[in-house]
Specification:
Length: 208
Amino acid sequence: MDKQFTRDAYIKYWLENGKKPISVYTFTQQLGIPESTFYDNYSSFEALEKDIWRSFFVDTLEKLKPDATYLNYDSREKLLAFYFLWVQRLRENRSYILLQKDKYLAPPLHIDQLESFRIAFYDYIRDLIKEGYQSGEIKERKFVSDQYVHGFWLQALFVLQYWVKDDSERFEMTDAAIEKAVNLSFQLISSNTLDSILDFGKFVFARK
C-alpha cells in the first residue's frame, strides 16, 4: 500500500462517514490490510492529513514544472499560474476540504495541519523570490527581504480561505481575488511603494 492509496482511502472514509476512523486498526481492517502496513507510510492520522495537504501542493507543481510556458514566466506570472492550478486541484477534493475546515481555518490550528504544505510552499516561494531578485522584478531590501516569504504564506492562506467561502459560479471571485492579491504583493516588493511605507514608519517612530 503506497502513500497515494492511503491518502485516497482516508479521503474516501471522510466523505462517506464525515469523520476520521476511530483507530488505525479499524481503518486498515476496512481496507483489508494489516495495521502495520499503514505505519509503513504514516505514524498517525495527523501525519496523513498533513501529507494530504502537501500532496495538493506537490501535484500542482508537478504539473507546472514541465510546462515550457510556465518556465518562461516571470515570478509574478509563475505564482499566478500556481494559484490558479492549485485551486483547481483543491476543487477535486472540495467536499473533503470543507469537512476539514475547522482544523485549518482557525488561526491557532492551521499551522499544525498545514505544516508540511507550509514548509514545501516556503521552499517554492524562496526560489521565486531569488528569480525575482535576478531579474530585477523584486527589490532586495535589508532586514525586510527575509520577511517576504512569510507574507506570501499569509497570501496562500487568504486564497485558501477565500476559495472555501466562495459561492460564485465556477469560483470566479476566487480567480479575481488571486489576481488582485498577487499583483498587489508584487507591486509592494518591486516598486518604491514599500520603501515609502517604511520611510514613513521610520519617521513616525522617530517622532515618538
